[in-house]
UniProtKB/TrEMBL annotation:
Domain spans labelled Inhibitor I9: 34-120
Domain Subtilisin-like protease fibronectin type-III, first and last residues per copy: 667-771
Protein name per its UniProtKB record: Subtilisin-like protease
Main location: secreted
Length: 778
């Protein structure tokens, strides 16, 4: 495309309108709602050969015994939705209150809860994380070959080149463990699956039950929103040359595990997003034989025994499947994270060192000297604003009056730093005579410019001084703005994104969450054709390149899912907990300037583990962590036993009435430590917390580790023994930690670390320590 000089308001012929469906979450009827019911599988009568027969029989019997026989939902066909048999045990059905009361008296009943809405949480990132095609985790894992990632999301666009099986068709047959299928549906036939996209299913009974007369926009696994296509290609997309977003971030796109297999489970619909469908998708993924489940969504404000992700992921963990999940987008102070589940990997979102830019050229070719300022921009057209008059005066510079802006002469207007450049853009979009705009911020990196609807550039206040000096010194100040530029390696990175939700986990604060930080801002990945991507003025640009740049913990999660797939490929013998531990203990707490990673949402102060977990993932180090903190099923059960849950609540999660609570403990063998205090207790009162940890040697046959403690401010940390000696691989050693800390009346979060350093210096196994008020995250 050739560069063009443009005005904001002569683009309507290039653009198409966008129509958005707004889903409702109305109940099924006033008397009936969808419920998820959990059962004890050991209570199934012998005359039923399958759990599904038993589940459907229960619903049939309950309906026949109540007085709603003439209602639409009185028949089994209309009311029975799903039978869950793999990741959990139970069913979902449309039931009345009277039917629920009857249901509570049947043998094997454990619990029920009403269906609920799920919250959705988007090329260069492999290089940013130092993945190298010649050495390290990529080649050692064969780029994730034959590892199956099950993605729970909005569906997939199978024709995207990211899901081509180029160079995969002849390398290996489908894994023998794979039991999935390519489910046909609207505009989706089985031939669309291949050696890369090996499975696709869709689950819509929950959304249909909530909206009985609904007609689904796309009744198949095909994606209509873009989210699922984006996340799955981030985790495991194949190599695609020439990928970009309207010229930004151009290069070769590929997922973190480019040779892994993808299976899509569509559970999110334009018409709604319901727990019953999410559970069905996760349940089927476990049955199909996936190795990793990637789920970029979660449920807010629910206990573990009513959290569909927590319940289904426990069943997945039982089958050796690692579940990778997003922490949520409610940061920095909008609310605590979700998916703070002890047996899953919880991923926070960070920024990385790629920025999208425009060059602001002061002066024209006739002048002896031209000054170039590189500012931030995401204006989506390949265009120049060329040799336009620079306008700066105090009457216009607030850029908050549509009347004044519309009366201004044509040119490039300079806006003052008001702290709200996005609000200024909204006003300028409706103005009619501006060739371009210069926005100003004390700290441009704070603003997440996923798009820029006007031909503008964002510069710093220091750079504004240069612009003003030029305007004052010139009789005819002019400027040119050149868009679609990408800059890498210039910014200090990573940093914690302001939107990422913070810990501690509201439903299990004893386990420090999130776990790790991964790239989540301005991530380039595949998108649906003709899907909304950007605006220019008041018009909408549709995606024609098949890629999009978006942000969120939804985008961070599949990065971690892909790395987990690589580790699974390199270490088939590792448990889910060993993989998670390797990712955590090798994560980096320092940025590219070798300073503490900063938190954008907290004025660039040092980020605490409540924001970034152990730190930013370092995949190559995770391949060889030295020591791992493993966790067995019984360890999780012992944790649940200590949380004051009832027997039925524990069984809802564990799916078994055979469990041991004799050693109940909140002290899970996790690669981190967290202690809480009540800030209302007398300041200076000393508190004490003890922990025990067991580490497994997965490094060399013989090794000795010495402990190094970085104690939080004002906190005493004792570790014994101070050295761990291993004589062989897979040998275990335990150690103890005592933290003595004051009750801080200021409610500060204090943090430090315990590092086990191998004598050779090859391994440094780091675990975070956090001392926080009980009110943290609330």
């Amino acid at each position: 495309m050739h560069s063009t000089s443009l005005s904001l308001f002569h683009l309507s012929s290039l653009l198409l309108p966008l129509f958005t469906f707004h889903a409702t979450s109305a109940p099924v009827t006033d008397d009936f709602s969808t419920y998820i019911v959990h059962l004890d599988p050991s209570s199934r009568p012998e005359h039923f050969t399958t759990h599904q027969q038993w589940h459907s029989s229960i619903v049939c019997d309950v309906k026949s015994s109540t007085s709603s026989s003439h209602h639409h939902f009185s028949s089994l066909e209309n009311s029975f939705l799903y039978s869950y048999q793999n990741a959990l045990h139970g069913f979902s059905a449309v039931l009345s209150q009277q039917e629920l009361q009857t249901l509570e008296n049947i043998p094997g009943f454990l619990s029920y809860y009403k269906d609920k809405l799920v919250t959705m949480d988007t090329t260069y990132t492999p290089e940013f994380m130092s993945l190298n095609p010649s050495t390290g985790l990529w080649p050692d894992s064969k780029f994730g070959e034959d590892v199956i990632i099950g993605v729970i999301d909005t569906g997939i666009w199978p024709e995207s080149p990211s899901f081509s099986d180029h160079e995969m068709m002849y390398t290996s047959k489908l894994p023998s463990k794979w039991k999935g299928t390519c489910q046909e549906g609207q505009d989706f036939n089985s031939s669309l699956c291949n050696s890369k996209l090996i499975g696709a299913r869709y689950f819509n009974k929950g959304v249909k039950a909530a909206n009985p007369n609904v007609t689904l926009t796309m009744n198949s696994a095909r994606d209509t929103q873009g989210h699922g296509t984006h996340t799955s290609s981030t985790a495991a997309g194949n190599y695609v040359d020439g990928a970009s977003f309207f010229g930004y971030a151009d290069g070769v796109a590929r997922g973190m595990a480019p040779r892994a297999r993808v299976a899509m489970y569509k559970v999110i619909w334009d018409e709604g997003r319901y727990a019953s469908d999410v559970l069905a998708g996760m349940d089927q993924a476990v049955a199909d034989g996936v190795d990793i489940i990637s789920i970029s969504m979660g449920f807010d404000g629910v206990p573990l025994y009513e959290d569909p992700v927590a319940i289904a992921s426990f069943g997945a963990m039982d089958k050796g499947i690692l579940v990778s999940s997003s922490a949520g987008n409610a940061g920095p102070k909008g609310g605590p994270l979700h998916n703070g589940i002890p047996w899953v990997l919880t991923v926070a979102a960070g920024n990385f060192d790629r920025t999208y830019a425009a060059s602001l050229i002061l002066g024209n070719n006739k002048e002896k000297e031209q000054h170039v300022i590189v500012g931030r921009s995401m204006f989506p057209l390949n265009a120049w604003v060329k040799d336009e008059t620079l306008i700066y005066n105090k009457t216009l510079s607030k850029c908050d009056s549509l009347k004044l802006l519309s009366e201004a002469p044509r040119g490039i207007i300079v806006c003052d730093d008001t702290g709200f450049p996005n609000d200024q853009m909204d006003v300028i979009d409706s103005a009619t005579n501006l060739a371009g705009v210069i926005f100003v911020s004390k700290d441009p990196s704070r603003f997440d410019l996923e798009s820029m609807s006007c031909p503008g550039v964002l510069i710093s206040t220091t750079e504004l001084d240069t612009v003003i000096d030029y305007i004052k010194s010139s009789d005819n100040p002019t400027s040119t703005i050149k868009f679609q530029q990408t800059v890498t390696g210039k910014e200090v990175a990573p940093s914690v994104a302001d939107y990422t939700s913070r810990g501690p986990s509201p439903n299990c604060p004893a386990v420090l969450k999130p776990d790790v930080l991964a790239p989540g801002s301005h991530v380039l990945a595949s998108w649906i054709p003709n899907g909304y991507t950007a605006t220019v003025g008041t018009n909408t640009l549709l995606s024609s390149e098949g890629f999009h740049l978006i942000s969120g913990t939804s985008m961070a999660c599949p990065h971690a899912s892909g790395v987990a797939a690589l580790l699974r490929g390199a270490h088939r013998e590792w448990s889910h907990a060993a993989i998670r531990s390797a990712m955590m203990t090798t994560a980096n707490e320092l940025d590219s300037s070798m300073m503490a990673i900063k938190d954008v949402g907290l004025n660039f102060t040092a980020a605490s583990p409540l924001a970034m977990g152990a730190g930013h993932m370092v995949p190559n180090k995770a391949m060889d962590p030295g020591l791992v903190y493993d966790v067995a099923r019984q360890d999780y059960v012992s944790l649940l036993c200590s949380m004051n849950f009832t027997r039925n609540q524990i069984m809802t999660i564990t799916r078994s009435n055979v469990y041991d609570c004799s050693n109940s403990s909140l002290d899970l063998n996790y690669p981190s430590f967290v202690a809480f205090y009540d800030k209302n207790v007398t300041t200076g009162a000393m508190l004490k917390h003890r922990f025990r940890r067991v580490v497994t040697n997965v490094g060399a046959a013989a090794a000795t580790y010495e402990v190094k403690v970085v104690a939080p401010e004002g906190v005493k940390v004792a570790v014994w023994p101070k050295s761990l000696v291993f004589e062989k691989k897979n040998e275990q050693r335990d150690y103890n930690v005592e933290i003595v800390y004051p009750s801080d009346g200021k409610g500060r979060v204090l943090y430090g670390s315990i590092v086990w350093v191998e004598e050779s210096g090859k391994h440094a196994v780091r675990s975070s320590i956090v001392v926080a008020p009980t009110s943290a995250g609330k």
